[in-house]
Amino acid sequence: MTRTIHLNLDINGRAHALDVEPRVTLLDALRDHLQMTGTKKGCDQGQCGACTCHVDGRRVLSCLTLAAQVEGRQVNTIEGIAGEDGTLHAVQAAFLEHDAFQCGYCTPGQIMSAVACIREGHAGSDAEIREYMSGNLCRCGAYNSIVAAVREAAEAVNTPVRETAEVA
Amino acid sequence: MKDFSYVRATSAEAASQAALQAGAAILAGGTTLLDLAKCGVAAPETVIDITHLPGLSDIIVSADAATIGALARMSEVADHPSIKAAFPAVSESLSLAASAQLRNMATIGGNLLQRTRCPYFRDPGTFPACNKRAPGSGCSALGGVTRNHAVLGTSEHCLATNPGDLAVALVAFDATVSFAGKTVLVEDFYRLPGDTPDKETVLGRGEIITGIAIPASAAAKNSIYLKVRDRQSYEFAAASAAVGFELEADGKTVKDIRVALGGVATKPWRARAVEQALIGKTLSAGTVEKASRLAMEGAVAQGDNAYKIELAPRVVVRAIQQLALKTAMKTGGLA
């Protein structure tokens, strides 16, 4: 017997109503029920970071979050971070500038993670960026460009610029 | 993942009551339960979401102790200024665990209940035999690939390593865990596998962890968590050590020292023999090396994991050395 529950989710500031089985993850709700396919499914078991979204401003893995759990929370996805007029977020612009991807599949998760990483104050040095972005895997190995993009975006976003302890 | 019913708990009492039903599982951060449901290891019929319960997320640090609610997130505790100041090993054990996303999800109560990463346990389709999953079915790890299996606290029925980092730091500093009106030492919360590896803790059905408490001490304040692993970040420990010490007024004799190990045992492992060998001594290289070897008393290698018996004492040595250096710099002992 298939049971469904009715949910009202707040995603990128807009209300979405949907009926899903209780086991449906936030990731599957976004992709299969709301046609928001910007959030990617990589491993689907919490190891790759491709599905990273924000819940109440914190980066989380949508593959290990039930859609039912986030009712009443604010969800933000990659679709919601550019400006209303299409102006790219500083992190998106920095990823383009630094060519911080190859195939691009991990990129939405990388960008959502980076936005949060900078906001948390964990983008103060290359070493710190590497540590705090370690939950986002890139099978193409674009890591050096990703670190450069996050560093530049952190410098653009943070005013005054944090004192950085560069690792040579 | 098999389908289940979802219940959002309205009170801790209601959650406990609902959890008494057969097939019920408590859902907090979800990073273990949903992962295991996807692996086919967990198949709850009812999932009881406790993440919206109020009053279980507070982090309070006084002169005597830190008390942390079961629903506080790993990241909140790791980054809490007073935890960093009074319990650095606790903060570090959390920062060095999992990834930033998982630390934002996983709760302190759930962290203590995380299940082993034993690949045989996690793959019921390929390996039906697992005494932890299906009591009496056997152990697929015996004679298998055992690189990440335990060398301490094992039995002929189970070699699964407890994967925790936080619990190691908590055991080192005599922390307690509270549930169902009871409070027990974290060290006593975990069971050795023996002939019932399916029973990992003393938590009973329907009992929900409400919080932990870590007594303040000079050793906890002067502490470090060192984690050695196969990659630099986002990996479980090959071996880890939580170490803290307090020196006598002479600045060199050990008054109190705590040593606990992770990544090598079936439960978070307090190395009391190492501690006893160092109390009243100075932390010279030879003394520390000799004492650290005592951490492996009773260790049994099972093929691929023999390296841990060499590695773990070295991790203890390095943790003590790094902490000694930090202590000396702080107190001006090293110019």
From TrEMBL, chain A:
Residues 5-81 form the 2Fe-2S ferredoxin-type domain. InterPro entries: 2Fe-2S-bd (IPR002888), 2Fe-2S-bd_dom_sf (IPR036884), 2Fe-2S_ferredoxin-like_sf (IPR036010), 2Fe-2S_ferredoxin-type (IPR001041), 2Fe2S_fd_BS (IPR006058), Aldehyde_Oxdr_Iron-Sulfur (IPR052914), Beta-grasp_dom_sf (IPR012675). CDD domains: fer2. Keywords: 2Fe-2S, Iron, Iron-sulfur, Metal-binding, Oxidoreductase. SUPFAM superfamilies: 2Fe-2S ferredoxin-like, CO dehydrogenase ISP C-domain like. It holds the Pfam family Fer2_2. One of its GO terms (molecular function) is 2 iron, 2 sulfur cluster binding. PANTHER family: OXIDOREDUCTASE WITH IRON-SULFUR SUBUNIT, OXIDOREDUCTASE, IRON-SULPHUR BINDING SUBUNIT-RELATED-RELATED. This is Xanthine dehydrogenase YagT iron-sulfur-binding subunit. It comes from Neorhizobium alkalisoli.
TrEMBL record, chain B:
One of its GO terms (molecular function) is FAD binding. Residues 1-219 form the FAD-binding PCMH-type domain. Keywords: FAD, Flavoprotein. SUPFAM superfamilies: CO dehydrogenase flavoprotein C-terminal domain-like, FAD-binding/transporter-associated domain-like. The keyword Flavoprotein applies. Gene3D superfamilies: 3.30.465.10, CO dehydrogenase flavoprotein, C-terminal domain (3.30.390.50), Uridine Diphospho-n-acetylenolpyruvylglucosamine Reductase, domain 2 (3.30.43.10). Signal peptide: none annotated. This is Xanthine dehydrogenase YagS FAD-binding subunit. It comes from Neorhizobium alkalisoli.
